[in-house]
């Protein structure tokens, strides 16, 4: 049994090591994505004009009026003091060609005092330019920058499958780390004095044992981040009912009707303010996005600048039909079924933000640890592979040496 598990661990580890090395290093970086991006690109984050800031809704109106080619799809409702207000945009359709206008950007930074656009970029573009570096790394973390193929997000699926393999391999690794009950202390020890292969082995085995629980959490939540709809939610629904919402249950959406008009963002925000009071939420609407493919609006409730949700289970979100204004669903942290709360905790755990600043430090360190475990695992495999090859070569040469020796004695 142990021999079979060793083989499984070896081949699982070899198959996913490079993926986890990339995911670990990029994860350590994007734990600080906002801070690093702002440090690298101050002109994209710091407002040029001092003075009273306009509301996000007014800024969106000005941006769309100044450039009819684009439509604002996501915007914070207020800018942080001294900062630009960053919006996501998509091209509108050209009435003459019925095709989207060509745009080489999907994110803009707007001066909140004037409505002028300070910067434009394609968030997630394959580029190492300073302006694009952090979004590039962020997207690399969970998609490897692989494109959609045949309507399938190859990168997201691939990294989700890597997470599943990693989860199973973590269980196997823990079993293999304790070959003997009497020698259990060795599985926690590091032979720093020995160095070389001995230390490499201990970094891989003992290092993995010390942080095993955290590794399992990161592996499980990585699957949830990438394969929530097709894998995790169906699995969770087997043991706990999940509250429908338009993001994960598009069947609850109303099909668009001829003559439908899209309600204004202002109207949706008014509905959100009323719904937030009805739910006794402590924070006002903080951001709004429009998903044309869903024909729905989403509104997040958070304080200005806290769109990630820096502590606890994250921010509340509510959804409305874009034509009728009917509320389609809500995700209120800490409320709902056991399955709902399990799904709510996935991103806060994966990002470390459930524990605030300390959690982000921990998850950044975990990213480096995952990269080290992946690298040491590959080094161990390569050393043993070379040893097996030398052993096989010696076994092939042994008969020849014996035959040569016999011939020499006979002569």
Question: How would you describe the overall organization of this protein?
Answer:
The longest helix is centred in the last third of the chain and has 54 residues, at 357-410. The protein contains 13 helices and 10 strands. Helix content is 50%, strand content 12%. Helix 1 (2-30) packs across helix 13 and helix 8 (212-226) crosses helix 9. It has a domain at 241-358. The strands form 2 sheets. Strands 4-3-2-1-7-8-9-10 form an 8-stranded antiparallel β-sheet. It has a two-stranded antiparallel sheet with strand order 5-6. The protein has 411 residues and is of the alpha+beta class.
Which features would summarize this protein structure in a list?
about 400 residues, two-stranded antiparallel ribbon, 13 helices, 10 strands, Iron-regulated membrane protein, transmembrane, PepSY-ass_TM, membrane, transmembrane helix
Number of strand elements: 10
Morphology: elongated
Largest sheet: 8 strands, antiparallel
Rounded to an integer, what's the Rg over CA atoms? 27 Å
Low-confidence stretches: none
- Measured distance between first and last alpha carbons: 51 Å
Task: Output the helix-strand order.
Answer: HHHHEEEEHEEHHHHHEEEEHHH
Average of pLDDT = 92
Strand content: 5-15%
Quick structural summary:
With about 400 residues, the chain is α+β, with helices and mostly antiparallel strands.
């Amino acid at each position: 049994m142990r021999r079979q598990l060793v083989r499984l661990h070896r081949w699982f580890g070899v198959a996913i090591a490079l993926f986890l090395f990339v995911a670990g290093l990029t994860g350590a970086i994007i734990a600080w994505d906002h801070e690093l991006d702002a440090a690298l690109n101050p002109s994209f984050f710091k407002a040029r004009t001092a003075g009273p800031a306009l509301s996000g809704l007014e800024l969106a109106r000005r941006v769309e009026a100044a450039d009819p080619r684009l439509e604002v799809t996501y915007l914070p409702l207020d800018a942080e003091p001294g900062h630009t207000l960053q919006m996501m945009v998509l091209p509108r359709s050209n009435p003459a060609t019925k095709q989207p206008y060509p745009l080489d950007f999907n994110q803009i930074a707007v001066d909140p005092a004037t409505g002028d656009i300070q910067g434009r970029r394609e968030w997630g573009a394959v580029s190492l330019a300073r302006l694009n570096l952090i979004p590039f790394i962020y997207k690399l973390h969970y998609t490897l920058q692989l494109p959609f193929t045949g309507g399938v997000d190859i990168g997201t699926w691939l990294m989700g499958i890597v997470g599943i393999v990693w989860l199973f391999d973590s269980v196997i690794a823990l079993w293999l780390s304790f070959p003997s009950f009497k020698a259990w202390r060795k599985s926690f020890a590091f032979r720093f004095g020995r160095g070389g292969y001995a230390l490499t082995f201990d970094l891989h085995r003992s290092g993995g044992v010390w942080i095993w629980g955290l590794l399992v959490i990161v592996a499980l939540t990585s699957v949830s981040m990438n394969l929530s709809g097709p894998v995790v939610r169906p699995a969770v629904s087997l043991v706990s009912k999940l509250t429908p919402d338009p993001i994960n249950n598009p069947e609850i959406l109303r099909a668009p009707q001829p003559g439908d008009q899209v309600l204004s963002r202002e109207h949706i925000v008014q509905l959100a303010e009323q719904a937030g009071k009805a739910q006794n939420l402590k924070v006002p609407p903080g951001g709004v996005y429009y998903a044309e493919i869903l024909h729905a609006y989403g509104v997040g409730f958070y304080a200005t600048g806290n769109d990630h949700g820096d502590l606890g289970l994250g921010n509340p979100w509510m959804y409305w039909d874009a034509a009728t204004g009917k509320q389609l669903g809500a995700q209120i942290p800490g409320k709902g079924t056991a399955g709902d709360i399990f799904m709510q905790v996935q991103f806060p755990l994966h990002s470390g933000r459930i524990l605030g600043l300390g959690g982000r430090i921990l998850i950044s360190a975990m990213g480096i640890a995952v990269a080290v475990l992946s690298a040491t695992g590959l080094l161990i495999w390569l050393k043993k592979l070379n040893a097996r090859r030398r052993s096989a070569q010696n076994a092939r040469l042994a008969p020849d040496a014996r035959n040569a020796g016999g011939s020499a004695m006979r002569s």
